[in-house]
Amino acid sequence: MNYEFFIAKRIIGSKAYKSSVSAPIIKIGIAAITIGMIVMLIAIATGLGLQKKVREKVVAFNGHLTINEFNSNESNESFVPISIEQDFYPKFNSVEGVRHIQAVATKFGVIRTETDFEGIVLKGVGSDYDWTYVQEFLVEGRLPTYEGKLSNDVVISSYLANRLGFQLGDRFQTVFGKESIDEIPFQRTFKIVGIFNSGFQEIDKTFVIGDLSHIQRMNKWAATQIGNFEVYLEDFSQLTQMEKKIRDNTPSLLNTQTIEEKFDTTFEWIKIFDKNTYGIIVIMIIVAGINMITALLVLILERTQMIGVLKALGSSNLSIRKMFLYNAAYLVCLGLFWGNLIGLALLFAQQQFGLLKFPDPEQYYVSIIPVHIGLDYIILLNLGTFIACFLMLLIPSIIITKISPVKAIRFE
């Protein structure tokens, strides 16, 4: 039998313990851990959820990496074509972890109506285009199919549709410039077959997705020439390592660029949430630890006579410290249990019903506050909180070594 654990259990289970002077302070300590755990879970879940959601929206229209010519400029338009006949296309077999690769091209144009006009970028895609991501953002209509024959069907954002007064099924005219400003520009008429809303205004106000063949014809490219390749990975966390592998397995004349490099401002912004989350975790653990230290100190003072008797009977300081640390560990676990129960219940409710929304969706790129519930960070958070609180509780337990048996027995 574990002697220290047995005594600790008897102390916790006694009625006197539950109605003692230290009981309110102990409850406050448990409540501090519970509230701290709830706040930490919400901070991590919402921070990760927002990062994941914003990242998915950016990746949906750009891929995890792009492969293009070194001569390409920083604009959204494809100027220098590259051949589609590459060893890594249509399957990037030389690098494990690549989920999909697709050929695209972009061209700047101006949508013209009787009363208004709007600058856009036509993103030309072909039969290899993966519509999985865009499907999630589709709010009306259908996704087009581009199989050989030139198609005028396009997908437009609800932002542009509302701005220009378009509806599903409408046709609109778009003007595309030529190399020389003296030449008559190209004119194309497109039909809206689908409307999407990513909530990411930088994308919604810019891109119209259409047939790649239109750009190839306007740029006088061959059917085997495209603007760039978009690469989708199986694991975003491996982005930096995968970029190096992909760069090493592509021709030296081609450049690779990660989505983080292309949208550096956006990704720097979402990384700020990590710093905020770490700050909240540190503060909550310190507050919970201080409350538990107070509770343990009161518990030790309340049990001073018992400590004196145990020392008189031959118990060592280490043995008595273990009793109180077992007691404190039980209180910490109790706080963690209720914190997890309430915190996860709130997160599941938000995940399923979207109860809380951002007051300014355009600022955060999403309307409903997203949450990401992961077993990995829940386990690490609980383990880290328990260890941190337990280590802090070692300090007040040193007081036990200073208690004299004779004085303790006489203590009132």
Helix/strand layout:
Elements: H1 3-13, H2 15-18, H3 23-62, E1 65-69, E2 82-83, E3 98-112, E4 117-125, H4 132-137, E5 138-141, E6 153-157, H5 158-164, E7 171-176, E8 186-196, H6 201-204, E9 207-211, H7 212-218, E10 225-226, E11 228-233, H8 239-248, E12 254-258, H9 259-262, H10 264-302, H11 304-312, H12 317-353, H13 361-364, H14 375-397, H15 399-402, H16 405-410
From the spread of the alpha carbons, the general shape counts as: elongated
Count of alpha and pi helical runs: 16
Q: What level of helicity do the residues show?
A: 40-55%
Largest sheet: 10 strands, mixed
List how many beta strands DSSP finds.
12
Question: What order do the helices and strands follow?
Answer: HHHEEEEHEEHEEHEHEEHEHHHHHHHH
Compute the gyration radius: what is it? 31 Å
- How far is the first residue's CA from the last residue's CA? 32 Å
Low-confidence stretches: none
Our estimate of the beta-strand percent is 15-25%
Structural class: alpha+beta
Rounded mean pLDDT score: 87
